[in-house]
Design a protein that fits this description.
The chain is mainly α. 48% of the residues lie in helices and 2% in strands. The protein is built from ten helices and two strands. The protein has a two-stranded antiparallel ribbon with strand order 1-2. The longest helix has 22 residues. The radius of gyration is 18 Å and the shape is globular.
Length: 214
C-alpha cells in the first residue's frame, strides 16, 4: 500500500491513526454509503458486519492483500488507498480494527469479543457479524471449502458462525440442527461459541497460512 497523497495546508500524518476516522464514524459512513444512489455500495453495512469480516481475514487460511478485502467491504476502488480523502480515512479505520483483532487473538485470545448487535434489553443478534464473516469467506471460498462439508469433523469449527448466515433470498446456509425436547434451540445459543470458534479457526489455519506465505 502506497502512502496517500496529503492535502496541502494540513499537518503531516505519520501513523495510520492520524488518517483514521473514529470507529463510530466509520459505522455512520458505511450506513450513509449503503444508501447512496450513486456511490458503490459496501458489502459491510454496519460495524458488526465489518467486525465479523475482519475476524475472518485474521483467522482465515490465507494472508490477503488489504485491497482484496477492504475494497469490497467498504465499496471503494483500489486507488482510494493512494489519496488522503474520507474514503482513505474509512480504510485506515478498518485496517486499525484489523490490527486490533489480530493483536487480541495473538496475545489474549481468551479476551476476544465479537461485536454483536445487542438490543436495548440485552438480546444478542449475531447474524450481521456472521454475515460479514461469510462475506470474506466467499472471497476465497475454494480455500475455505475444506471446512464446508457438514460430514467432516472440522466443519464443527465453522458451524456456530454459518448457522446464522442467510442468503439474499432469506434462505439459511445450513439446516437447523435438531435439539432435544425441553432445551433451547441450538442456533439460539450458538453465538456463545463464536469467540472460541474464531480462535480455533486461527489455530487450525495457521500452519497452512504461514506455509503459503513462505
Amino acid at each position: 500500500m502506497t502512502k496517500p497523497k496529503r492535502r496541502r495546508g494540513k499537518p503531516a500524518k505519520t501513523t495510520m491513526a492520524d488518517y483514521a476516522m473514529s470507529f463510530e464514524r466509520l459505522g455512520q459512513w458505511m450506513s450513509e454509503r449503503a444508501r447512496s444512489p450513486t456511490l458503490r455500495h459496501p458489502r459491510a453495512t454496519s460495524l458488526s458486519m465489518l467486525d465479523g469480516a475482519v475476524a475472518a481475514v485474521v483467522a482465515g487460511p490465507v494472508s490477503m492483500a488489504s485491497e482484496e478485502w477492504v475494497c469490497p467491504l467498504l465499496g471503494v476502488d483500489p486507488d482510494a488507498f493512494n489519496h488522503d480523502t474520507e474514503e482513505f480515512s474509512a480504510i485506515a479505520a478498518t485496517l486499525m480494527r484489523h490490527n486490533a483483532i489480530s493483536e487480541t487473538l495473538s496475545t489474549r485470545p481468551e479476551s476476544f469479543e465479537p461485536l454483536f448487535v445487542r438490543s436495548q434489553d440485552g438480546e444478542v443478534d449475531p447474524q450481521p457479524w456472521c454475515m460479514g464473516f461469510y462475506a470474506v469467506m466467499k472471497l476465497r471460498l475454494l480455500v475455505w471449502s475444506r471446512l464446508l462439508s457438514p460430514n467432516g469433523t472440522e466443519h464443527l469449527m465453522l458451524r456456530p458462525i454459518l448457522v446464522h448466515y442467510i442468503d439474499d433470498a432469506g434462505r439459511p446456509l445450513l439446516p437447523p440442527a435438531r435439539h432435544k425436547l425441553g432445551t433451547p434451540p441450538i442456533v439460539q445459543n450458538a453465538w456463545r461459541d463464536i469467540p472460541a470458534a474464531v480462535e480455533a479457526l486461527r489455530q487450525f489455519w495457521m500452519p497452512i497460512r504461514f506455509k503459503r506465505g513462505a
